[in-house]
Amino acid sequence: MYIAELLPAAEHSRYLEVREFLQSRIRAASIDYWNREEFPFALVAEMGKYGLGGLQTDGSSQLFKGLMYVEVARADVSLSALVGIHNELIVGMIDQLGSTEQKRQWLPGLTAFTQLGAFALTEPDHGSDIAGGLETTARREGEEWVINGAKRWIGAGTIADFALVWARDLDDGQIKGFIVETDRPGYSATKISNKIGLRIMQNADITLSEVRIPEANLLPGATDFSKANSLLRDSRAWVGWQGAGIQLAAFDVGRSYSLQRKQFGRELARFQLIQQQLADMLGNATASLALMVQLARIQDEGKLEMAQAAMAKATTTRLARSTVAMGRSILGGNGISSDYEMAKLFGDAEVLYTYEGSYEINSLIVGRAVTGKSAFT
After folding, report:
1. Where does the chain show beta strands of DSSP type E?
2. Is the pTM of the predicted complex or chain greater than 0.90?
3. Among residues 108, 157, 179, 296, which one has the fewest Cβ atoms lying within 10 Å of its Cβ?
């Protein structure tokens, strides 16, 4: 990948090492876990040894971090979701908004991937409107907080060591962030099964019933929701890198299949319609990467705005949907079996199109920025 050559020498060498590990160890191994909707603890432990749990705090450039997200998605989209949420929203929130003690307690295990957190924001009745509609509550009783409510679609909710729960303070009405250890009485999580994509990610329905946590579990930098805006903006941009990575994966699978599969006495790769689809797939992936590289430059300058992140996420995931559809077509009947990988990518692309702000919501964010008129109110 030419873009990787833009990295400094040390990061370029690390990039090549991690890419080789992901392609040789993670890609094929992930298929059975995906089929069984099972979490691969051993694979994640190996990923931790390559530093994928600490991308947010290891001093890496925005471009390197983005290309790591691309390569994990290229190997398995579910695990790229874990790596991205873990770094952008869990490690990032504690590192930037947590107390000294919270950082001391959690960051070493998180960055080594020996501990996991869950980002608990979305609720059963509130997704796109969560900032205004959040119903989970927190009330102060002496030196404790008492949390009540429900969360839905929470990644790693059944396996995490703690959940970073967003709840509305009944006293001042502000949405605040709390570290809730998952072994506390009143916390329960149920795995959401039968998903068409991201089947390795253990999404959960979470119920919080009179869950008591100490005052020290409040993130001091997250005493109102606006404090999390920059991290939520950056996490939206991260999905743009996923959108590029899944397209490279689809191209890899489609190209390889077309060179091996024969019909009418010759390889599929010799047919014009197949070549056209491969060219379009690679064009979509390349355009997505170019967009994300420019976004990384803007991030490095500290100038990224939500509308830019929303546009990147909407664009790359829209192109991803088109790219995996062409890939599925190239594989014909085998394109509907996850054994051949493309069906796995096909399902995962639908999730990317919807989470971290659906395509439609992100489009409206861009529309508001370019017209000055809000379609939400």
Report:
1. 117-120, 137-141, 144-154, 162-169, 175-181, 187-191, 204-214, 262-263, 266-267
2. yes
3. 108
Domain span holding position 69: 2-111
pLDDT of residue 310: 94
* Strand 162-169 to 137-141 pairing: parallel
Check: CB of residue 222 under 8 Å from CB of residue 93: yes
What confidence tens digit (pLDDT) does each residue in 270-280 have? 999 999 999 99
The C-alpha atoms of residue 265 and residue 230 are separated, in whole angstroms, by 56
Please tell me what DSSP assigns to residue 268. G
**377 domain-assigned:** no
Number of domains in the chain: 3
| CATH number of the domain within which 184 lies | 2.40.110.10
Closest CA to 326 of 269, 288, 278: 278
- CATH number, domain of 39, equals 1.10.540.10
Q: With a cut of 70, list the residues of the chain below it in pLDDT.
A: 1
131 and 164, same structural domain? yes
Contact in structure between 75 and 26 (CB atoms under 8 Å): yes
* DSSP bridge pairs for 375: none
Within 8 A by CB and 6+ apart from 91, the residues are 53, 54, 56, 57, 107, 110, 111, 117
Q: How far apart (Å, rounded) are the C-alpha atoms in residues 209 and 188?
A: 9
Given 65, 88, 111, the domain boundary residue is 111
Predicted pLDDT at 1:
58
Q: Which two tokens stand for residue 47?
A: 């990923």
Q: Give 33-61 pLDDT, tens digit per residue.
A: 999 999 999 999 999 999 999 999 999 99
**For the domain that residue 346 is a member of, what is the CATH number?**
1.20.140.10
Q: CB of 177 within 8 A of CB of 218?
A: yes
The SS3 call for residue 200 is: coil
**In this structure, are residues 157 and 118 in contact, taking their beta carbons and an 8 Å threshold?**
yes
Q: How far apart are CA 137 and CA 24, in angstroms?
A: 46
Task: Please give the backbone phi and psi of residue 119, each rounded to the nearest 5 degrees, phi first.
Answer: -95, 105
Which amino acid is it at 221?
Answer: G
Same domain, yes or no, for 70 and 140?
A: no
In a domain? residue 345 = yes
Do 61 and 8 meet the contact criterion of CB atoms below 8 Å apart? yes
